[in-house]
């Protein structure tokens, strides 16, 4: 168990309330342009009529998130959603490509982990998306191993369409949906047990990238470093 398990659970519970109301806010795409800081004081004040039942913390958190629909900062939302990473590599993994009803685009889960020789299948749930490796060969910054495969699904537009890729070279592979790059529709495939110190996919994202793209890459770096740290 992680030392901060309790904290994590609380955050997840809070996120559940948010997700029900605001959709998958963690992806924080085009639909939530105004990342203003929530004005909690006003909402908290309205709860003081309840008679000071301060021990009902989780209930209050839930109510709060309903009132703060769509006003979470990017950082908060990113940590609420998709908090879990795989515990160990699997022979295969599946990633959904999704456009939510509120118009947000994302890969779910954001991070998958397969063994050397493992296969990842991307499945189009909704919207129109690609899964394109961050590689010079795809006219993108290199964020996969130098000898890794620069995969590119091409545009998938029919619901249920799939793209499958087998990975023989261990490493960290960042990839992006090219039409939704600017809103940070990005994911990571980890193959085998690579040395985290030697991965282009874990480098600090360049300052020339868009803000949402950079934030998402930083978030993914954090998750993958944590995930690989658990294996040693
Ligand atoms: Cu997309």
Walk me through this protein's architecture.
The chain has 232 residues and is an alpha/beta fold. Helices cover 27% and strands 21% of the residues. Strands 1, 2, 3, 4, 5, 6 and 7 form a 7-stranded mixed beta sheet that branches. It is globular, with a radius of gyration of 19 Å. The chain starts with a helix and ends with a helix. The model is unreliable at 1-26 and 28-81 (pLDDT under 50). Bound molecules: copper (II) ion. Copper (II) ion binds next to loops. Copper (II) ion is lined by residues 105, 127, 129, 177, 179-180, 185.
Q: What are the SSEs and their pairings?
A:
Elements: H1 5-22, H2 40-47, H3 57-67, H4 74-80, E1 90-99, E2 105-108, E3 111-124, E4 132-133, E5 162-167, E6 171-176, E7 186-191, H5 211-229
Parallel strand pairs: 1-3, 3-7
Antiparallel strand pairs: 1-2, 3-5, 4-6, 6-7
Helix pairs in contact: 1-3
Copper (II) ion binds next to loops.
Brief write-up:
The chain has helices at 5-22, 40-47, 57-67, 74-80, 211-229, and strands spanning 90-99, 105-108, 111-124, 132-133, 162-167, 171-176, 186-191. By secondary structure, the chain is an alpha/beta fold. α1 (5-22) runs parallel beside α3 (57-67).
What's the domain count?
2
Question: What would the CATH topology of the largest domain be?
Answer: Immunoglobulin-like
For the residues shown, what is the average pLDDT? 77
Q: Approximately how much helix is present in the residues? A: 25-40%
């Amino acid at each position: 168990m992680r030392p901060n398990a309790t904290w994590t659970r609380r955050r997840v519970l809070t996120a559940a309330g948010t997700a029900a109301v605001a959709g998958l806010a963690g992806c924080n795409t085009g639909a939530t342009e105004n990342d203003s800081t929530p004005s909690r004081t006003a909402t908290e004040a309205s709860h003081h009529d309840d008679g000071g039942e301060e021990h009902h913390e989780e209930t209050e958190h839930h109510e709060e998130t309903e009132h703060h629909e769509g006003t979470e900062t990017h950082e908060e939302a990113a940590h609420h959603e998709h908090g879990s990473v795989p515990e160990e590599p699997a022979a295969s993994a599946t990633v959904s490509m999704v456009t939510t009803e509120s118009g947000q685009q994302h890969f779910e889960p954001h991070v998958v982990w397969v063994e050397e020789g493992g296969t990842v299948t991307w499945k189009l749930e909704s919207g129109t998306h690609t899964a394109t490796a961050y590689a010079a060969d795809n006219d993108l910054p290199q964020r996969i191993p130098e000898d890794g495969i620069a995969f590119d699904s091409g545009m998938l537009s029919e619901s249920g369409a799939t793209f499958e890729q087998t990975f023989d070279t261990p490493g960290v592979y960042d990839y992006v949906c090219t039409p939704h790059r600017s809103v940070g529709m990005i994911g990571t495939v980890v193959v085998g047990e690579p040395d985290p110190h030697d991965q282009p996919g874990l480098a600090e994202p360049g300052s020339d990238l868009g803000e949402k793209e950079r934030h998402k890459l930083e978030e993914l770096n954090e998750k993958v470093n944590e995930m690989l740290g658990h294996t040693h």
